[in-house]
Each structure stands twice: as C-alpha cells, then as structure tokens.
C-alpha cells in the first residue's frame, strides 16, 4: 500500500521540483544571461584549443593537420628533455617567477595596507589612480621607457650618474643589473593593480575590532599586525596558491621586450623558447610538448600549494 502511494506521488514530486527549478531560472534570468559570454569565452578560447594538445604526440604537419599527422608517442618529449637549452629556459623561468613571487607578491599587500591607512580621501583616490595606470600601459611602451631610462649610453639615469663623475652602470647589458631592472619594472607595473583585491578584502574587516583595539591602547602598527593582516590572511593564501599555479607560466611580452643578446642567460624563458621553436623554426610539435609540460608542472604546484594550505587550516581553492 505504502509503496503504491510512493510510486504515485513520485512523479508529482519530480514535476514540482522541475517547476521550482524553472521558476528559479525565470526569476533570475538576467543573471544567467550574463554568464553566456564568460562561458562562451572559456569554451572557445580555453577548452576548444585543448584539442591541439594532441600535436605534442605527433610528427605534426601543417598541411595534414591534427587528424592527418603521424602519431609518434612521447618522441617529442624525449627530444625536448635531451636539449641543453630546455634546462636553461626552465631554470630561467623558475628563477624569474620565484623572484617575482618573493618581491612582487608582497608589494600589493603592503601598498593596500598603506592606502587603507590614509585618512585624506582625495589624496587616497588620486594615489590609487596613479598606481593603477601602469597596468594599462603596453609592455612595448614600458620596454621603450626602460631603454630610455636605463640605457648605458644616452639613458637618463646613466646621464645623471656620469654628471656626478661616476662611471655608467650597465643596467641592461649585465645580467645581475638587468635582473634588478626586470624585477623593479614588474613591481611598478603590477603592484597598483594588485591592490584592488586586497582593498576589497580590507573592507570586509569588522570596524568594531579597530574600535576595541583603540580602547585597549593599541597603536596603528599593532592594529595592522593583529587585525588587518589576520583579516585578509585567507585572501593572501588564495592569491598565493594562484600565483604558485603560474610558477612555470611566464608572460611573453615582458622578457621578450626587455631582453637582449647580452643577457640571454637569464632572459631566455619558456614563452620565448616556444615562440622561437614554434613560429620562427616551425617546430610546432616541440613547442606544444613544451607547453604541455609547462601546464602539467603548473597543475602540480597548484595541487601541492592547495594541499599545504588545507593542512594549515586555510580555505584553499577547493
């Protein structure tokens, strides 16, 4: 008897559930409509190109395409790992990214805290606008500015140094000096824009905590150390995990524009290697194998960083 009643009611229950779902979709259809373009972007530019990863396992011919090219297994990876240049570009990519992580990652955090401590609102808004601007400047333009500023002959900085009676400094032609210029330029370009996320996180901190700390006699720096930093710790951890996920991924424009033959021991990275192998030398399979290796290592770093964050009680990415 009970089973027959359940069987008769189940279709009606399922229909009611479907009606509620449809009603929910219709109620918020504007929000779901906003998702169409982002979903289409990721499908077209992120997921569909994964089909081309098969090139890494083929003797790819541009005339035969992916479906017509001969499969050769892991031969491209064996050839890649046998190249001495492979280890150089991996070393340089890790070196530049770890240095960026060490110096560039804390910069927006410190900058956001300093901006948050400003009490003059008009000055705070002007400062934010000025700090955001470098993010919108192309690396081609930034590269030109760097050469105008730091060139050994004719550069503004070296002209000032020579006027002081000192020898010119090879900022762009000596490896260690070039590395400092590379890191400093990256901080200048990205730090201001990176403060947006941390400033948003700072707005979520309960203001009553600051008021209570003032009653207890805490100064400004103690508030920062005991309230501000713990309040944005979860955001810092998530951003750090995402940054570690890109530890093997380095932008093409920055090292390509700022490099020159005298500093290639540091400036030759995975992105420039892929460009030269894939486009200049038409070694498409080899370049794809390098890109696939790069993505795999990045995935490993993300999983490890997320696992470590979970072990320390943080939220992580998943």
Automatic annotation (TrEMBL):
SUPFAM superfamilies: MetI-like
Membrane topology, as annotated: Multi-pass membrane protein
Keywords: Cell membrane, Membrane, Transmembrane, Transmembrane helix, Transport
GO CC annotation terms, alphabetical: plasma membrane
GO biological process, one term: transmembrane transport
Protein name as it appears in the record: ABC transporter permease subunit
Sequence similarity: Belongs to the binding-protein-dependent transport system permease family.
Keyword Transmembrane helix (UniProt): yes
Keyword NAD: no
UniProt subcellular location: Cell membrane
Organism, as annotated: Paenibacillus silvestris
């Amino acid at each position: 008897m009970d089973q027959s009643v359940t069987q008769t009611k189940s279709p009606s229950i399922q229909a009611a559930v479907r009606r509620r779902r449809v009603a929910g979709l219709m109620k918020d259809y504007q929000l779901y409509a906003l998702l169409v373009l982002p979903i289409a972007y990721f499908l077209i530019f992120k997921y569909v190109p994964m089909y081309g990863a098969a090139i890494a396992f083929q003797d790819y011919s541009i005339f035969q395409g992916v479906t017509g090219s001969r499969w050769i297994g892991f031969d491209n990876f064996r050839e890649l790992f046998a190249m001495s240049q492979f280890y150089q570009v991996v070393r340089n990519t890790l070196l530049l990214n770890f240095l960026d992580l060490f110096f560039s990652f804390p910069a927006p955090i410190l900058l956001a805290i300093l901006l948050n401590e400003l009490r003059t609102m008009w000055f705070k808004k002007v400062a934010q606008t000025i700090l955001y601007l470098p993010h919108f400047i192309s690396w081609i333009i930034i590269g030109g500015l760097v050469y105008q500023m730091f060139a050994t002959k004719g550069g503004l900085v070296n002209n000032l140094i020579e006027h002081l009676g000192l020898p010119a400094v090879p900022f762009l032609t000596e490896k260690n000096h070039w590395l400092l210029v590379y890191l400093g330029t990256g901080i200048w370009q990205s730090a201001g824009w990176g403060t947006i996320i941390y400033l948003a996180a700072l707005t979520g901190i309960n203001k009553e905590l600051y008021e209570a700390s003032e009653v207890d006699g805490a100064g400004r720096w103690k508030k920062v150390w005991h309230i501000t930093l713990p309040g944005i710790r979860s955001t810092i951890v998530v951003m750090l995990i995402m940054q570690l996920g890109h530890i093997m991924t380095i932008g093409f424009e920055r090292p390509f524009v700022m490099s020159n033959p005298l500093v290639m021991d540091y400036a030759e990275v995975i992105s420039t290697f892929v460009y030269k192998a894939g486009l200049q030398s038409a070694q498409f399979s080899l370049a794809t194998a390098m890109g696939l290796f790069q993505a795999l290592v990045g995935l490993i770093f993300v999983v490890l960083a997320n696992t470590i964050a979970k072990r320390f009680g943080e939220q992580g990415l998943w």
